[in-house]
Amino acid sequence: MAYIKLLKTRRDNVPTVRKGKYQDIYQDKRWKNIVREKKRMNPLCERCESNNKVVPLTEIHHIIPFDWGTTSEEVESLAFDLDNTKSVCNECHDIEHELLNKNNTKEIWKNHKL
Ligand SMILES: [Zn+2]
Ligand SMILES: [Zn+2]
Asked: Which listed ligand is nearest to 58 at the C-alpha?
């Protein structure tokens, strides 16, 4: 019984609606504007640049990942905030995400919000 219950709970937790929502974010006009602005303002990987390397941006990273938002309003305000984005190259993007995990950024961010 407990096993079935667990399965059910897990299935209920699969964020199907929210997943659709994330795909929408990258289709959203507001996101496309951010990409355009970012490419204009920071055409180089910001992380490489601070290490005195010139590498063109290949991806736009969210400093606070928008999927941490718990409501659709919060998700959107994180996703479409230019100040919450960083121009990165592939390599630095991996590093940024490693740092997010390593530095416990989610906990810090959640506590800061409260
Ligand atoms: Zn880089
Ligand atoms: Zn990222």
From this structure: 1
